[in-house]
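User: Can you recover a sequence for this backbone? Please restate the input before giving your answer.

Assistant: Of course. Working from this structure:
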């Protein structure tokens, strides 16, 4: 297949482009370098030394013999260019990751919120409009977020995309219908993902676009089998308070002798998936497209759910003697929650996801230790907007952490 990877220079996009190319697909990366410019604005960057995109694709050709094409297009603004590229290249599938992905970036400043909203909404709309106007029959795979469901305790396992609702009005007989699971976003970023989902469902239903929505949990890990073939192919490792996800931040904090930073008691439950399994999930989705005219297909792209404090406990086994800083939580979210999601869709298609406890922490431990000398220590600590920052330093077992 010819596959466009939108946002193919990013944390998930780059290893995905390599995996698809290694699997024999003709890959085109569409990326305007916005993530790298955000690094410059935040005065932070990847712990790992990432080459520029031109050198990355040249290195891949050198080590694999396969070519990846690139196009620099701002999807939110350059509608004609993406439409014309679709007409010219006529891809069979498009994987859309070209969105600003960090919750803190979308909430810390007005500028960050406005950029996240306009970029994410306009990029997704332009891509769907371009598919429609170009007349191609490309399968669009969009990466969503489990954060659209919110983080309140629901008391049930969240199904994949749709629920059966029974409507009652003014004494009329009830009517049963399938609807998208109600969204409950707690950030501007997750708001854009919720609106994406509505737009994707609309274009699938009314315009015949073949759409698969992958509702993705927090991605952890760094390397895939393609990234390790040459250091110039290495993936991003974000560790700062804005883009660094919890496991990568824990790994670097431990490598540098810092306490692990946990908001409150660490009772927040989140969904997780290893980056290697993200690659497998996307390939499965590409291999199983919906029919034209079918409703949007939805998969929960997760491996497991865990509490933050239990992740800290696992980290304490990898880094013996590590301490934990319990910080005031600046986010507007419940201090603890239960969160269960179904992933039967991918499991039924052969996915057996790897779990955090399966020893994979060693991978990010080794990457963090190898490149710890590159860390900017001023961006490691989380940013809190609380009037008074409360820090309680304890050993993992003192927070009631479990194995």
């Amino acid at each position: 297949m010819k596959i466009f990877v939108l946002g193919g220079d990013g944390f998930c996009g780059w290893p995905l482009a390599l995996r698809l190319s290694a699997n024999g697909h003709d890959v085109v990366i569409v990326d305007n370098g916005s993530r790298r410019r955000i690094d410059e604005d935040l005065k932070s960057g990847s712990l790992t030394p990432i080459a520029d995109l031109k050198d990355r694709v040249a290195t891949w050709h050198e080590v694999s013999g396969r070519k990846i094409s690139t196009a620099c297009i701002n999807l939110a603004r350059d509608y004609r260019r993406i439409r014309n590229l679709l007409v010219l290249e006529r891809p069979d599938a498009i994987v859309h990751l070209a969105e600003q992905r960090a919750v803190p970036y979308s909430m810390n400043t007005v500028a960050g919120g406005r950029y996240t909203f306009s970029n994410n909404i306009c990029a997704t709309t332009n891509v769907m409009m371009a598919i429609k106007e170009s007349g191609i029959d490309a399968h669009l795979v969009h990466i969503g977020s489990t954060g659209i469901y919110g983080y309140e305790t629901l008391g049930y396992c969240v199904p994949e995309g749709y629920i059966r609702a029974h409507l009652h009005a003014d004494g009329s007989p009830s009517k049963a219908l399938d609807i998208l699971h109600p969204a409950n976003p707690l950030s501007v970023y997750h708001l854009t993902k919720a609106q994406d989902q509505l737009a994707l469902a609309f274009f699938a239903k009314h315009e015949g676009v073949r759409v698969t929505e992958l509702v993705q949990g927090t991605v952890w890990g760094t390397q895939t089998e393609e990234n390790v073939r040459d250091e110039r192919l290495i993936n991003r490792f974000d560790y700062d308070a804005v883009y660094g996800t919890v496991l990568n931040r824990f790994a670097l904090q431990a490598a540098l002798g810092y306490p692990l930073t946990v908001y409150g008691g660490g009772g927040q439950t989140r969904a997780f998936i290893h980056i290697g399994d993200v690659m497998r999930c996307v390939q499965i989705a590409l291999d199983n497209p919906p029919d034209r005219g079918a409703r949007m297909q939805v998969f929960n792209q997760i491996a497991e759910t865990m509490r933050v404090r239990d992740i800290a406990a696992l980290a304490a086994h990898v880094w013996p003697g590590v301490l934990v800083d319990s910080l005031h939580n600046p986010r507007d979210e419940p201090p603890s929650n239960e969160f269960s999601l179904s992933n039967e869709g991918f499991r039924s298609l052969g996915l057996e996801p790897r779990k955090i406890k399966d020893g994979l922490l060693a991978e990010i431990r080794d990457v963090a230790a190898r490149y710890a000398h590159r860390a900017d220590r001023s961006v490691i600590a989380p940013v809190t907007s609380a009037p008074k920052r409360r820090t309680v330093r304890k050993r993992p077992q003192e927070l009631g952490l479990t194995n």
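That completes the design. Residues 2-240+272-302+340-357 form a domain with the Rossmann fold fold (CATH 3.40.50.720).
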